[in-house]
Design goal:
By secondary structure, the chain is an alpha+beta fold. The chain contains 3 helices and 6 strands, in the order H-E-E-H-E-E-H-E-E.
Length: 139
């Protein structure tokens, strides 16, 4: 039964993502932009970090979350020690190893400053309280 629920949920997310790809608002970057979109997340109503999203399904989820919609909402990506689009920090999340998750392990939860100081020892970052606050086209 659990497999059916997950499959049904996945089918729903894919259907919504497909619909959103063709219906992005003009003031927001089109999720099919070949360069991707840059999503700004805020953690615990304080610190912010930015992620380059290149996968159209992830882009659609980010757009839906910014619009107040539901879905998997925990950003989850592999930490790389390169700034990329994550200005102000010495790290970023690998755009080729990123997903939105419903659940993650506690070991990758924390503040962006925990990643910066290496207090967070996981090779992944997945802040549970993160929320999408801005989306812009990647340059």
């Amino acid at each position: 039964m659990r497999g059916r629920t997950r499959a049904t949920g996945l089918a729903f997310v894919l259907a919504v993502a497909t619909a959103l790809i063709g219906c992005a608002a003009p003031e927001v970057a089109s999720p099919t932009t070949s360069a991707g979109i840059v999503v700004t997340f805020e953690v615990n109503d304080g610190e912010r970090f930015r992620v380059l999203l290149i996968d159209p399904a992830d882009q659609a989820i980010a757009l839906r979350l910014l619009d107040g919609g539901e879905g998997p909402d925990i950003p989850n990506g592999r930490i790389v020690r390169d700034t990329g689009v994550n200005e102000g920090w010495s790290w970023s999340l690998d755009p080729t190893d990123f997903e939105f998750a419903d659940l993650t392990t506690e070991v990758c939860d924390g503040e962006p400053s925990d990643v910066e100081s290496r207090t967070l020892t996981s090779d992944r970052y997945c802040p549970w309280s993160a929320r999408v606050v801005e989306i812009e086209p990647a340059s």
